[in-house]
Structures are given as C-alpha cells and as structure tokens.
Amino acid sequence: MSVRVVVGAQWGDEAKGKIVDLFAQQSQYVVRYAGGSNAGHTVCTNGKTYKFHLIPSGILHPDTLAVIGDGVVMDLRSFQTETEVLRQQGVSLQNLRIGLGVHLTMPYHRQLDELAEAKIEGRIGTTKRGIGPTYADKADRIGLRVADLLDRQRFETRLRRVLERRNPVLQRVYEAPAIDADALTEEFALYAEQIRPYATDVPHLLMSSLERGEPILLEGAQGTLLDLDYGTYPYVTSSHPVSAGACLGTGIAPNRITEIWGVAKAYTTRVGEGPFPTELNDETGDRIRNRGREYGTTTGRARRVGWLDLVALRYSARLNGFTALAITLLDVLSGFPTLKVCTAYRYCGETTVRFVSDGYALDECEPLYTELPGWQEEITDCRQLEALPVNAQAYLRFIEQYVGVPIRLISVGPNREQTIWV
Ligand code: IMP
Predict the structure, then answer these.
(1) Same domain? 369 vs 317
(2) pLDDT the model gives residue 292
(3) CATH assignment of the domain containing 351
(4) What is the 376 CA–ligand 1 centroid distance (Å)?
(5) Is residue 40 in contact with ligand 1, taking CB distance under 6 Å?
(6) CA within 13 Å, CB half, 307
(7) Domain that holds residue 172
(8) Quick one: CA torsion of 90, 91, 94, 97, rounded to 10 degrees?
(9) Catalytic residue positions, numbered
(10) Does the beta carbon of 37 lie inside 6 Å of ligand 1?
(11) Per the confidence metrics, is the pTM higher than 0.90?
C-alpha cells in the first residue's frame, strides 16, 4: 500500500503535472488537496497537450479515480470551461469525484479579488481567480460548499445570508453593483445538476480505499513557499500546498502517508509580487525564461526567473519531510558556462543558511552563491543518469548533498518519456 504526496518545493510551477501523471498510472486514486483554479498543470503525452486547473491530471488514466478533495476550492464557471475543453480532447469525466466539503468560489469572490488587486495598495499579484476571498469566507463560516449546492433551498438561504454581508462591501468599498441573489440561484441550480453525479464523501471514499490497501496519490498545487502559514507571507496563496495540507485537504491521517515527493525546478521561478533573493533581471534570466517557456498556464504572465535557491529548497525539504526529490527542467540549463546556486544569505550583517520565510525580511536577504561548472550538451534525449554530462551529474549531486534528500527522478523535457529514474 502506498500513499504518495507530490508537493511543489518552490513558488509553484515546478512541473508537478508531469510527475503526477507519471505516478498516476500506478495509483487507484489521484486526489487534489489544495488551491483552486489558480493552479495550472500541463501534461504532454502522445503528441497532445492537456491543461488542467481544477481537475486532477489523473483523469487521463482510465483505471484511476480523479478526486477533488475537500481542501480545494472550486469555481464552477471555470470548471465548465475546463471540462468542455477536455471533452473536446476526448477525455472522459466518468472517473471524476468531487468532495461534498469543497468550497465554491463564487462570482463575487472573483470580483472581490480583482477589485482588491486593482484598488488596494500593497497588491499580492494574485491570479485574480477569487482564491483568497473564497478561503476567507470558509474561515468566516459563510462559505458555500458542494453539499449546499445540491440542496436548492439550503443554497438559496445561505447565499442570501452571504450577500447581506458581501454586497455592502462591493457597493460601499468598491462602488460596484450588488450581486443579484435570484440570478445566481438560477445559474447555480444548473451547475448543481452537472455536479451531482460526481459529488462524493471523499474522506469516507479514501478511508475505505486505505482499508483495501489501494495506492493513492495526493496531488499538490502551487508550492511550499506560497503556503499560507509557512510561505513568504503575505505574498502567499490562501491554502496549504505543503505535505501537511495533503492530510487536511483529503482527510487522510498523517501516519498513512508513505512517500513525500518534492518537485523542484533546476532553477527558481516566481509569479506575482514578493521577495525572490536569487531573481535575475538580466540576459541570463531572459534566456532561462525563454528556454523554459516560463509563462503562466493560468494567467499567461511572464514568470520571474532566478538561480536555484538551495537555502529555500532545504527549508522546503524539512518542512514537508521530503523522502525523495524530483528535479525538473534540467535541460533548460544546458549551454551556460557556469551555474550559480544560492547556498547562504547575507541578512542583518550576518551570513546565515537559515531560510527567512517572513516576506518582508526575506526581501532584505542578499543571496550568497556557489559557482558550479555548466555543460554545453543538449540533454533532452538522455534517459539514464550516467548519460548526462559529468557537470550535470555534479550539479545534481551538489543539490542532493546540500538538501539531504535523494534525487530519484530527473525531468529533461515535457514529455512522459523524457524522464530519468534514479
Ligand atoms: P492567489 O493564489 O491567486 O491568491 O495568488 C497568490 C499568490 O500565489 C500570487 O503570487 C500568485 O502568483 C501565486 N500563485 C497562485 N497560484 C499559483 C500557481 O499555480 N503557480 C505559481 N504561483 C501561483
């Protein structure tokens, strides 16, 4: 029996979609545990590219159940668009399950997110998908869940109560029109019928599956450094991408987890505002961005790019309890004479190897680098560790030794087969 968690080890966009897809074939269930349609996972297989925002990429495997766990928040309008595109690509949704406790990202959440980003100082650079306001309502106990949606009367009553609190904010703070409860109730009554066949008690489903000893894969979204508590607050998302979030978001107990895979790029990227000590605002950064096609799946924004930050990666490894590392996009680093990796920070006049997670304090940290020799060869056709240039092997060994976690997978291209298992 295995319960594997796949966690983003940096600021998101670590190519988790590919790693999840590789493990999905050995799993009975692939369960998404956090975030919402702010995520974007790309899977390239058999000459086709699939883009996922909400639906677990496990849906591509006919024998795997793709489950949206209760820690996820779901925008039903964007769910319609996503399912439509997948259907057109010939993907069946028959194996989809959606938790009854999943919170709904409502149109007013999206609106509030957009308005706050546009009008309030100190923007976070969110994806404007309504994620923060949805989780805020969840904590405020006025969120609407899938279970509410399935009972029209209950949904309407609760929606009216929420709007009594949210409409004055829209009108008075942002001078925006109030939301019409009747129109929203009608629209969501249609979604209710589309969702009903998939709605499931997820903790119960997974507990029964654990009793049968079936393999489960828990799929994270975003990355550790965007965690609400342990990321670079306030420049974070509103959920828990870390491995502990996998338990909260699915109902699986911590002692049932058997493997925790951290997925990290061979360099670092970040989207949105916030500190990024190793950021490169120069030609080297542009070159990595272009080679790595570093533009957001969800928003199309150009990602900020920088050298690998090992101080941050080791923090991430300890926080999550990684049992294995997957290093992705190694191929992007071909062609540089030397590569830098950040091995310490200069902070308040001292040198430290401790990660500073406070968003404002991290902004004060200056990265201290170790330089490693690069390699010139293209490596996208390598399928074994020994086939990689010796300097690429040394780069990986350096990461492994600094972080203290074995690298068990290396990705050298977007396709399934462009993978080295170690
Ligand atoms: P939110 O999750 O839309 O509220 O955005 C909060 C922060 O998380 C912003 O900096 C976003 O750019 C970042 N973020 C959210 N989702 C992703 C993702 O999937 N990849 C990378 N960054 C993300």
Answers:
(1) yes
(2) 97
(3) 3.90.170.10
(4) 33
(5) yes
(6) 25
(7) 104-195
(8) -160
(9) 13, 41
(10) no
(11) yes
